Request: fold
Amino acid sequence: MTAAEGTGAHARRAAPDRGRTLLGPALALVHTGQAPTRSALTNALEVTRATAGAVSAELEALGLITVDSSPAGGGRGRPSHRLAVNPAGPVVIAAQIHADGLSLALVGLGGQLEPPVHLPLPPATGPVRMLRAVAEAGAELARASSRRCLGTALALPNPVTEPDGTALVALHFAWPSGTPVADLFAEQVRKADQGPRAQYPFPSAVANDANLAALAEHRHGAGRGARQLLLVTSGHRGVGGALVIDGRLHTGSAGLALEVGHLTVDPQGRPCLCGNLGCLNSETDPDALFAAAGRTPDPDRPLLAQARELARAAAVDPAARAAVDHVVDRLGLGLAGLVNILNPDRIVLSGLHLDLLAAAPDRLASVVAERCLWGRSGRVPIVSAEVTHAGLVGAGELAWAPYLNDPQSVLPLPG
Reply:
């Protein structure tokens, strides 16, 4: 070890040459729960036990994982060390803008979410003021934490282009088309005081919320093990979708793929914010469920929560039952069209759609099968999402991405 490696505020242990290129893949395996032991890590990386030991030791020295030498597993051979993400390790700031509020949380490795903070929208919802409110609220979380904070990412309820990070259509707010949201957010993050435990430079990123929810479900929830995962969700308003292929988001040529909310399921249906009629967006979201039930939601309560209550009431309330069946039929039409085009091996439903699936599982499966080219023989499993606050967990995945690719870029706390 040289003097430069062994001294200074940001000194860290040199990585072993034989495991240097394996640090990222190894951390990703522990992060997603695929390597709970050193033996599992050895097998997954297809390396020797000594190399797996050196790699796990380096990740432990970086403060990212813990290595427990107490025996794990009851199989043959020498018991293996237990590997886990470090519960006191670094965090990132995850933020999400909803149609009617803001949510933020600190997220550690393994998708471990600290208690989220939910805030009302700022009085002015223009892009600069909105993004300033998000950046300042996130910085407040970072300053209050004893853990090193590495960066931030924001989930947005609208399409975001790649790689420039432009919001082409901000459907829920009066933002100009083409708002450079990634640049604006980065500017506000730079102005915010992240506190003495933040690592600088402090990267920021933005992406569509449905894409990030799909990433969270694939890595930590109901999408584990799927090769072609389709996620469809209805949040506070509208419908989003995303496709994960072999562990990577399919975002198209410019980040705008899988805008499933604008698939037409009823040409004579309800008007959509995009200007068309009968989009999945306007036929299967909370507003659509209330309209089908002939009821008006309480304006002083969160719309999504009320819609989920209405869906769960279908077991005892005839009007709710009829509304659920109406909306489920349209959801099934949309899912069948997506299955015909994408041929996924699993569909995950979240938000209100999770409750619609619970209220009418057989009806939804039947509509999809009847409209699918392969019929019942080609039935795709439709399952409920498992990750709580998936948009925030997914934003955490986005913020963690540079460090999962290069764990050595994580610096220790100064001093």
User: Anything to note?
Assistant: The first strand starts at residue 65 and ends at 72. DSSP finds 14 helices and twelve strands in the chain. Residues 139 and 343 are 42 Å apart (CA to CA).
